[in-house]
Amino acid sequence: MPDSFRFDRLFIGGEWVEPLDGGVRPSIDPATGAPWGDVAWGGERDVDRAVAAAKEAFEGPWRKIPPWERAALLRKFADLYATRVDALAEIETRDNGRAVRESRGDIGMHAQYYHWFASLADKLGGRTIPMDDSVHAFTTRHPVGVVGAITPWNVPLMAAAWKLGAALAAGCTVVLKPAEQTPASSLALARLFDEAGFPPGVVNVVPGDGPVAGARLVAHPDVAKISFTGEGATAKTILKTGADTLTRCTFELGGKAPHIIFADADLDQAINAATGSAWALCGQSCALGSRVLVERPVYDRVVEAFRERAGRVRVGMPLDPATHMGPQAHRQQLDKTLSYVAIGRGEGAELVTGGARIDRDGLADGYFVEPTVFAGVSAAMRIAQEEIFGPVAALIPFDGEEEAIAIANATPYGLAAGLWSGDTGRAHRVAARIEAGMVWVNTYRYIRWSTPYGGVKASGWGRENGLEGLDPFLETKTTIVSTTGTFPDPFAS
Ligand code: NDP
Questions:
Q1: If you write DSSP's letter for every residue of 407-475 in order, what string do you get?
Q2: Which residues are annotated as active site (predicted)?
Q3: How far, in Å, CA of 318 to CA of 324, rounded?
């Protein structure tokens, strides 16, 4: 464990405090199945303390700090973050098993997210509204208040960057609850906010169980908004829990992204993107192209390329920089992935390669699974409909644009999509008709601070990043000022 971070305290009100309710729990390294560190575990009373600290900070110092000073603090934090990329990547990799070459690449970009949000902090002006001469009408924008940020286990620091960067730039204060499998990196993050000099209570971090600490955060009357990334089923529970307090919610949920390869595509590039996306994060990302739709004339070539590439994926210990793909992040996810391999075979899909847990020396205690390819998949199969969240590519053949669009849209999800074609007109036609929050054309998973990210249909509500990313953390107030000061007596006649 890197020396400068420790994880056995909660971060509340600018202090490192022992949990009142929960104590300390081991965090499991999915590469070994063994504990690698002890993490403080908060309960309801800890969440209450954190919300009280966040409320006090919101009503006190944070509200009074001019926006350009909020921005300066965020920039200072971002610069500090950039100096700790290696340590943060190691912590995240120990918690979720993501190959460290990926963790470093991802976490290496986070400082830029915080810089982007910092750059927006003092530009959140309203507008004047053209009216007649009798009034002057204008809007102003105000932070909603205390934000509960609830994050998943696959990308804890990325989800935190998107939520905290936007919330803090908007002038909100935050209580962050990371997923139970991956709490350590969020406490490391708290250390950096502390070092950067954020006022006490502006950022609070309380790991804990979702149905306890998470639910208390959602139900708390002083929490104005929940920014959530996770599963749709959890989002529905959150909506019900937050109903009595009318808590605002944004949701980044699951996906089953179609990655469409037309026969006229630059096939080498398309295969690079499609195979890379199938096995990145060991398949554990909502935006990965888990459904690969391939036009029939090139279908066999693409299947063969997937089979060949799967053999070149170096599965291994995630802290080894040579490793391409680490283990699944936790035992339940491993079981889920293996169960979907069985489902795919039972549905009649052809298992081209992979599909088994890896039990070779050195990896047998971890949650490693082979990169897996199914061919002959039809759109209605469960492996083409349901989010597996494992390194399982489902290759679906299609004939022509209309069928590609129909298959692409035939799931409950609508997060992301990719398409490869050498025909610009076709690319526009198809992109326009795909039901998704994001469509990548002749590229894939290009995600940046300035590009809005989020889903339609069962993939969520609202957008993170981009200019739109601040909207959920702001309320608009309309002020109308009479220029005459006169108001007619309604009962004069
Ligand atoms: P979960 O929904 O299980 O958990 C997400 C977070 O919610 C965790 O912190 C969890 O805590 C918490 N939680 C659980 N129950 C409650 C509750 N009753 N009230 C409040 N909070 C609760 O998702 P996963 O962690 O399993 O993450 C994987 C999912 O996230 C996938 O479906 C994936 O598609 C989605 N995802 C979406 C992204 C997007 O941008 N659209 C990006 C990344 C992931 P605990 O861990 O203790 O249960």
A1: HHT-SS--SEEEEE-S-HHHHHHHHHHS-SSEEEESS-----TTS-B--SGGGEES-BSTGGGGGGGEE
A2: 252
A3: 8
Q: Where are the domains of the chain?
A: 10-254+459-478, 258-441
Please say whether the beta carbons of 183 and 27 come within 8 A: yes
Q: Which atom of ligand 1 lies at the shortest distance from residue 177's CA? A: 9
Q: How many A from CA of 143 to the centre of ligand 1?
A: 25
Q: Report the alpha-carbon distance of residue 352 to residue 298 in Å, rounded.
A: 16
Question: In terms of DSSP H, where are the helices of 221-285?
Answer: 232-241, 267-279
pLDDT digits (tens, 9 = 90+) for 42-93: 999 999 999 999 999 999 999 999 999 999 999 999 999 999 999 999 999 9
**Pocket residue to mutate for ligand 1, from 51, 150, 162, most atoms within 8 A of Cβ:** 150
Evaluate: CB of 215 within 6 angstroms of ligand 1.
Answer: yes
Query: CB count, 10 Å around CB of 284?
Result: 24
Token pair for 23: 């104590």
The structure's pTM equals: 0.97
Out of 90, 102, 180, 252, pick the active-site residue. 252
10-254+459-478 homologous superfamily = Aldehyde Dehydrogenase; Chain A, domain 1 (3.40.605.10)
Q: How many other CB atoms are found less than 10 A from the CB of residue 426?
A: 16
Q: Does the CB atom of residue 183 touch ligand 1 within 6 A?
A: no
**Side chain identity at residue 264, one-letter code:** D
Q: Take atom 19 of ligand 1 and give the residue whose Cα is closest.
A: 215
Q: How many residues does the chain have?
A: 493
**Over the stretch 347-385, which tens digit does the pLDDT of each residue have?**
999 999 999 999 998 999 999 999 999 999 999 999 999
User: What ligand 1 atom has the least distance to the C-alpha of 230?
Assistant: 30
The pair phi, psi for residue 488, each rounded to 5°, is -65, 145
What is the CA angle 431-436-440, rounded to 5? 50
- Beta bridge mates, 16: 11
Cα-based distances in Å from 69 to 73, 90, 120, 195: 6, 31, 12, 16
Residue closest to 279 by CA, chosen among 324, 244, 248, 320: 324
Does ligand 1 have an atom closer than 6 angstroms to the CB of 464?
A: no
Tokens for 116?
Answer: 């982007």
State in Å: Cα 237 to ligand 1 middle.
11
Domain range 258-441, CATH class: alpha beta
CA-nearest residue, atom 39 of ligand 1: 252
Taking all residues of the chain, what is their mean pLDDT, rounded to a whole number? 97
| Residue 254 Cα: closest atom of ligand 1 | 34
The Å distance, Cα 159 to ligand 1 centre, comes to: 11
The answer to whether the CB of 31 is under 6 A from ligand 1 is: no
Distance between Cα 464 and ligand 1 center (Å): 16
